[in-house]
Each structure stands twice: as structure tokens, then as C-alpha cells.
Design brief:
There is one protein chain. This protein is mainly β. It has a single domain, classed as SoxY domain (Immunoglobulin-like, Sandwich), CATH 2.60.40.2470. The protein contains two helices and nine strands; from the N terminus they run H-H-E-E-E-E-E-E-E-E-E. It has helices spanning about 5-15, 30-40; strands at about 45, 50-55, 55-60, 65-70, 80-85, 95-100, 110-115, 120-125, 130-140. Strands 1, 3, 5, 6, 8 and 9 form a six-stranded mixed beta sheet that branches. It has a three-stranded antiparallel beta sheet with strand order 2-4-7, with no helix packed on it. A hairpin with a 4-residue loop joins strand 8 (about 120-125) and strand 9. The longest helix is centred in the N-terminal third of the chain and has 12 residues, at about 30-40. It starts with 5 loop residues before the first helix and ends in a 10-residue tail after the last strand.
Amino acid sequence: MAGVTRREVLHYAAAGTVLLAASPAAATPQAMQEAIRKVVGSAKVMPGRMQITIAPLSENGNTVPCTVTVESAMTPQDHVKAIHIFNEKNPQPNVISIHLGPRAGKASVSTRIRLSETQTVTAIAQMSDGSFRTHSANVIVTQGACLEDTP
């Protein structure tokens, strides 16, 4: 609790307030790779057949629109089973997992995600034949989310 005086500690203690020294989570690209491996196991992940639509520049990382679309016939024999979105520098690398079936009709999902800073967003699609597809996009964030200072 560097920077906090003894007087401030006594003041907060008298008011019944608890001071916690918090530091930002040390998220890394390696943490994202580990999260991806938990989803795909030892399977090979191939590029292609999918697209991430996300702004390459975001002024505010609190709510960044993101759409993932996968090319698929969406038939019982050929469909997308799941779409997973990961980021490399947020406290938790697995943003969302969406499970689909052939009755979904279209393999496309839209959401808004929080980004703590400039980073790469990666989507993984699990296909019905057991294969995995991927696509990544870089996003420059000028005002990050997730790690904001609070008064």
C-alpha cells in the first residue's frame, strides 16, 4: 500500500472501510494460447472459412462490437458446433463460447466485448467433423477497459 499515509489508514479504518492493494491481472498471449488449447486439445487449428468483423481502432475498450461469421452449410452433416472468442491481454482470455447446431441456420454471432488495451482477438470455430478453424484481428484501443483506475 505504497503512497498511503498512516493517517489515511486510520481514517479509513475508523470509517469501516477496507483498503485492498490490487494490481492488474498479468494477462499474456501465452494465457490465451493455453485457453485455446483447453478448447481444441491437440487438434490442429486451420485458418480459413471464417471472419471476425471488429473495428481495427477503438476509442473506448469498454464496449467493442464484434461479429464472427463461419462459412458452413449448417446441415446435420456439415455444421458449426461452437464459436469461441479469445483475447490476449484481458484478465480472462476466454471471452465467450457459443454452441450452435444445424438448426441455427447461419453460423454468425455478434456481441460486444471489453478490451483492456491494444491486442489481438482470436475466434475459433469447432466444426461438426471435429476440425477447428480460426481467424484473428488486431485491435488498437486508445482508452482501455477492465483495468481502469477508480477513485
